[in-house]
Every structure is written in C-alpha cells, then in structure tokens.
Amino acid sequence: ERLIRMYKQNDGYFWIGGPGEEAFSCPLGMQVNKGQGLEHDFLHLHYRSSPIMLAMGAVPMDSMRQMKNVATDPYSGGRNFANHYSKREWNVVPVTSTIETQYATAIGTGIAQTKKGCKGITIVNGGDAGTAEGEFASCLVWSSRPMMPLPILMIVTNNQFGISTPAHQQHGEKNIADRATAFGIKNAVIDGNDVEESWFGIQEAMNYVRKERKPFLLEAKVSRLYGHSSASGANFVEKEADCLVTFENQLEEAGVLSRKEMTTIREKYNAEFLEQSKQVKHEPMPSGDTIYDHVYYGQKGRYW
To answer: What is the DSSP string of the chain?
Structure first.
C-alpha cells in the first residue's frame, strides 16, 4: 500500500506487487530453508513475491528504494522495477519482467541440486496466465523425466486474471494443477486466502519434494486486490476477498488479538513506512557512469 502511494505521488515509475497474496506468500517465506548455495533452497520468484521476501526477513525500506529507483536499492542499484528482487545470500535469483521465464531457470538449479545430492530444493512461482508460456511446460517436462526427476516445487498463484483477461476465457482445464497429472507429478489445489490451509499445504508440498527429490505442483487460489499493476490504475478492487481482513476476523474470534490491538499494529507500521518513504525521497539517484555495472556478476563499468 505504501508503494502504491509512492507511485501515485510520482515517487516511482511503475508499480506491480502482491496485495491479496499475503495469506499464502508469508507462510511460504517462513518455511524456506534460507541461505546461499545448493544446500539451501533456490528461489525463482516473480514480481508479486514481496510477501515472501518480507517473511524471509527483507527490509521494507529497501522495497521503497527500488520503487523510487535510488542508488541505495540493494536489489538492483535503482536500475529495475519495483518488486524485482535479487539476493545472492538467500539464493534469490534476479526477478525479471519477462513472463514465466523463471520456470526455465528453475530447471538449472534443480539439476544442480540433484547432481550434488543435497537437501536444498528449488522453488519457483508464477501466475495463472503465465502458465500458457512454453517455459512452464518445459519445467513440467524436465522435472518429471524418469532418468532424473528434479526437486522443484512449482507454484501457481491463481488470481483468475491475466492482466485484463479473465481466466475462464482462456483455461479449458478445471484446475491448472491438473496439468501435472499427465506428467506423473504430484499436485494439489489450496485456498491461498486461508493462512492455515496455506501453511500446511506448503509444508506438505515442501516435505514431499525434500524427501522424495521429485517435483510437486501447488496451485493456490488468491485475490488481486489492486488490479494488475499501475498500468491498470492500482486501485482497490472491492469485490475481491481480502485475506488480511479474513485473518483479522479469525484472530479476533479466537481471542488471539483484539480489534484494538490489530489497529494499533497497523497504525504503527503505517507511520513507520511513511517516515521511511520520506527518507527515501532524499536518497541519491544512481549515477550515469554505473549503468553497465552488474550486467554480469561482478561487472564494473563497460566491457569493451
């Protein structure tokens, strides 16, 4: 919500994010085997993955820095869109704007982990519309080959829309997860708006991939609360189910937190994020002479 406000205040060139996916993505981030190297999980994420990163311990202010495209952005030095994360220390492969190419790169880390014989798994996520891309099919094929099955947890967060195209106009199958059955890949469909169902669904899928060293396709039905991106206005969509409202009601009914306590928490972070966004406004923009830095790992300056 703060990033959307920044965009509308002209403190960013483009916004895209994951409001409506928190109930699924936060439990996912909390269960990742975080670290660097093949013994830890590799993450091939897409641009709706901010709840995953925050649950893993990412600093919210750093997302604001990328939104503003300032030089202090630790993910891209101010050179990429909002929510395009990259963190070598956590095996977070750079997020790209190209649709679903992450399913192709996931094959590579899956092969590396298989050959190494380690405990780490590969996690890749994307949206429902992107499953029409060839990279998604390639991941199904490569991960399920009997000669070398790959420890890949494939995730599809299905919000029923591809930018502005309704899913029911494009999908002949009942569930996207059904496609995995033809490849002998274990699969499941869960309610991604339910925190508990998401937690245990992710846990079961992860445990299977870790133990069996085979792929799993998990489809989570989620909401899209602010449209596709700033290209469609980034305005709140009232007809969508809000997983945070649902979870707050569950916490209140169970006596875990009172409505007053939850309001206090929300107001606290709203105030903190407002102050952080003000600070980011005054941080330097990237210098023109750094435009070629990090095109390749370790690169500084232009290659001649």
So the answer is: -HHHHHHHTTS-S-----TT-HHHHHHHHHHS--SSSTTS-EEE--TT-HHHHHHHT--HHHHHHHHHT-TT-TTTTT-S-TT---BGGGTEEPP-SSTTTHHHHHHHHHHHHHHHT-S--EEEEEESGGGGSHHHHHHHHHHT-TTS---EEEEEEE-SEETTEEGGGT--SS-TTHHHHTTT-EEEEEETT-HHHHHHHHHHHHHHHHHH---EEEEEE---TT-SSGGGT----TTS--HHHHHHHHHHHTTSS-HHHHHHHHHHHHHHHHHHHHHHHTSPPPPGGGTTTTSSTT--S---
